[in-house]
Design a protein that fits this description.
Layout (H helix, E strand, L loop, with lengths): L2 E12 L2 E6 L10 E6 L15 E9 L2 E10 L6
Antiparallel strand pairs: 1-2, 1-4, 2-3, 4-5
């Protein structure tokens, strides 16, 4: 299954899903939008993620379900 990568901003985290605002994803012909993604297991993601944080995700499409994040990393907030 093809994996896609994009930077995004966390809008909301709820249980095992995260709402992200991301720029266009040309490979999927997606415009810039806000949408839900399924989070990877807790041990595979940074601790204490919060709304407003910038992240980089790698994700795979799943038929009939929200896209699954396979890798998630926090991007530096510019302060070091």
């Amino acid at each position: 299954t093809q994996a896609y990568t994009t930077d995004a901003v966390i809008e909301r985290i709820e249980d095992e899903a995260v709402t992200l605002k991301h720029p266009p994803v040309p490979a999927l012909k997606w415009p810039s939008m806000t949408m839900d993604f399924r989070l990877p297991p807790a041990e595979q993601r940074p601790a204490k993620l919060a709304a407003g944080e910038k992240v980089r995700i790698e994700f795979k499409m799943q038929d009939g379900e929200m896209p699954l994040i396979t890798r998630l990393e926090r991007l530096s907030s510019g302060g070091g």
